[in-house]
Design goal:
By secondary structure, the chain is mainly beta. Among the domains are: 36 residues, no CATH class; 111 residues, no CATH class; 115 residues, Immunoglobulin-like (Sandwich), CATH 2.60.40. It is 8% helix and 47% strand. The strands form 8 sheets. It has a 13-stranded mixed β-sheet, with no helix packed on it. Strands 6-8-9-11 form a 4-stranded mixed β-sheet. A hairpin with an 8-residue loop joins strand 17 and strand 18. The longest helix is centred in the N-terminal third of the chain and has 15 residues.
C-alpha cells in the first residue's frame, strides 16, 4: 500500500501532463490531495522513521525499511540493517510489525499505527488513539484503553477525573453480594462524575439477592452521594425480605413493613416501628408518623392493643383510631373509637399525660367495652376492654407528631 505522500506525488505528476484543459488541474489536484489525506490517516513517512545506519535504536523502537515496519529487539541497536529478504520476518536485531489498516475509520487490528487522527471500530464502539507517541504499537485495545492510550468516542460514556487519572466507564455493572461487589448474586450500576480524585461515583443502583437458609432475601436501592459526609446514602430503598420501602436520605431503616418519606436517620424505626409510615424532615423523628397494629381479646379485661415509645425531653400528640369485631360463629359484638391525647417527658422522666383524653368517637355494641390510654416509664399504651367469653380482633392505627422539649 502506498503512503499518503506517494499518492500525492503521483497525482501531481499525472496532472502535469494534462493537455485537454477541460478540467482545471488545480481543482483535480485539490480533490485528489484531499482523498490522499483521507486514505493516509495512518501513514508513517511523516514520522521520519526510515531506518538510518548511523542511528542507535533502543529496544521497541519502530523503523521503516523497504516499505516494511520493524521493531528493535535490543538496546544499542546500531548499524544493523533490517532484513531485505521478503521471506524473512525476524533476525537477531529486528522483528517485523504489521501495519495497521490505513484510512479514516477502520476496524481495529493489532499493528503499528502512524501519525494523524486515528479512529478505529472495535466491539460495537469507536475508539480514538490518544497516545501521542507515534508510531504506536497496538496489541490489545482493551488493556491499552484502561492505560489511557485509547478513548471511547461512542458507546459507553467515559469518565476521567479532575487530575487526569485513567478513564473508567461511567456506567458500571458488577455482581454483588449484599450490595458488596463480589462473585455473588446481584448487580450494581454505578454513576460517575468529575470530582477531585478517584472514580468520582455520585450514585448507584444496587440489586441484591441472597439465599440465607430458607429465607430468600432481596432488595433494590438507589444510593446517592452525600458530599458532606463523603459516603453513599440511600435515596430509595426496597427490601423484599423485610418489606421496607423508603424514599429520602437516611442512615438506617430497621423496621419491618415500613415506608419512609423524608430526610434524616429516623432512628425511631429501630424501636420496632413495624408496619408504619414516616413523613417529614427531621434528624431523629419524622414530622408525621403513622403506625398500625392488631391484637385479640377473649374476655372483659384490659388488653394492650398498641405500645408507643416516647423519647426523653419530648412532647407528643397521639391520635388513635381503633376498631374491634367479634370472630365467633354468630358475631354480635363490635366497637369503634377515635381518641387523642397530649403526652410529654421531662428529661428522662416518666411519661405524663397533659389533661384528659379527648374522645372524638366511641361506638360500642356493649356498654362495658372501653378503650383508654395508659402511661408508663417511657411508653403510652393503647388498651381495650372486650366482652367476657368473646373472641374479638382489634385493629389500631396511630398517628404521631413530636416536638423536642425540656
Amino acid at each position: 500500500m502506498k503512503t499518503a505522500q506517494q499518492i500525492k506525488d503521483d497525482i501531481t505528476s499525472l496532472l502535469a501532463d494534462n493537455s485537454t484543459q477541460d478540467i482545471s488541474p488545480e481543482d483535480i489536484r485539490d480533490v485528489c490531495t484531499s482523498l490522499a489525506d483521507l486514505a493516509g490517516a495512518g501513514d508513517y513517512d511523516s514520522l521520519n522513521i526510515e531506518w538510518d545506519v548511523a542511528t542507535t535504536y533502543a529496544i521497541d523502537d519502530i523503523v521503516s525499511y523497504l516499505e516494511r515496519l520493524w521493531k528493535s529487539k535490543s538496546a544499542g541497536n546500531l548499524g544493523n540493517q533490517p532484513p531485505s529478504d521478503p521471506n524473512t520476518t525476524e533476525d537477531t536485531y529486528w522483528i517485523e510489525q504489521s501495519k495497521a489498516p490505513a484510512g479514516p475509520i477502520t476496524e481495529w487490528q493489532a499493528g503499528v499505527y502512524g501519525a494523524g487522527l486515528i479512529i478505529v471500530y472495535y466491539n460495537d464502539n469507536f475508539y480514538k488513539l490518544e497516545n501521542s507517541t507515534r508510531p504506536f504499537v497496538s496489541t490489545n485495545i482493551n488493556t491499552e484503553f484502561l492505560n489511557g492510550d485509547w478513548s471511547k468516542v461512542s458507546g459507553d460514556i467515559l469518565y476521567e477525573d479532575a487530575v487526569g487519572n485513567t478513564a473508567v466507564e461511567l456506567l458500571k455493572i458488577q455482581r454483588t453480594t449484599s450490595g458488596v461487589p463480589a462473585a455473588g448474586i446481584g448487580a450494581s450500576i454505578g454513576f460517575y462524575s468529575e470530582v477531585t480524585a478517584g472514580e468520582g461515583k455520585i450514585g448507584e443502583i444496587v440489586f441484591t439477592a441472597n439465599d440465607v437458609g430458607a429465607d430468600e432475601r432481596g432488595g433494590l436501592s438507589l444510593n446517592l452521594m452525600d458530599f458532606d459526609a463523603g459516603t453513599m446514602k440511600p435515596a430509595l430503598n426496597i427490601d423484599f425480605n423485610d418489606s421496607k420501602f423508603s424514599i429520602g436520605r437516611q442512615t438506617e431503616v430497621a423496621a419491618v413493613g415500613a415506608i419512609v418519606l423524608g430526610y434524616g436517620p429516623f432512628s425511631k424505626l429501630v424501636n420496632n416501628r413495624t408496619n408504619s409510615l414516616g413523613i417529614g424532615w427531621n434528624e431523629t423523628f419524622p414530622a408525621l408518623w403513622i403506625e398500625q397494629d392488631k391484637a385479640n381479646t377473649t374476655d372483659a379485661t384490659l388488653a394492650i392493643l398498641k405500645t408507643i415509645l416516647l423519647d426523653p425531653s419530648s412532647t407528643y400528640h397521639v391520635h388513635v383510631r381503633v376498631i374491634g369485631g367479634e370472630t365467633d360463629g354468630s358475631p354480635t359484638e363490635r366497637a369503634m373509637y377515635t381518641m387523642e391525647g397530649l403526652f410529654y417527658r421531662i428529661g428522662s422522666g416518666n411519661v405524663v399525660q397533659q389533661g384528659a383524653t379527648n374522645y372524638i368517637t366511641a361506638i360500642e355494641s356493649t356498654g362495658s367495652m372501653d378503650c383508654i390510654f395508659v402511661t408508663g416509664a417511657s411508653t403510652v399504651l393503647v388498651k381495650a376492654i372486650g366482652v367476657a367469653a368473646t373472641n374479638m380482633n382489634w385493629r389500631t392505627i396511630v398517628t404521631i407528631s413530636k416536638v423536642e422539649s425540656n
